[in-house]
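Its record is retained below.
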Amino acid sequence: MSECFNEFFCNIGTGLAETLPKTDVDPLSYLINYTHIRFSRNLTRNYSGDHQQLIGISMAIIKDNKTILVGILTHMINTVIRTAKFPDSRKIARVRPLHNKGDNSDRNNYRPIFVLTAISKITEKVLAIQVRTLFLRKL
């Protein structure tokens, strides 16, 4: 069953991506280059073994050591923005199927839940804040 979910979830994104229109817009034009990170209070302090096995470091460790790590994280995130490339090492996630409704044996009745690394969550939140800020400035 896990192989069935794996194949289904791995291929569904490619099909959706092919339906999106092509664009010549530079993705960096949407971002603002911040030189520091403000740690959000809504980043959960997860001590679960799952997270630590997946990534080797928990959000709790990052939050407890934020004054030490902020410079490193800022450099990493600015590199993502500058190069417009999200490193493969930060694309690793544990995928868990969550049943929505209907027949349990039909894989279309499940949606994937991605357990992301702490560094990926922080990077995505910073990028989301930048995109929202830019969008609001353009209104």
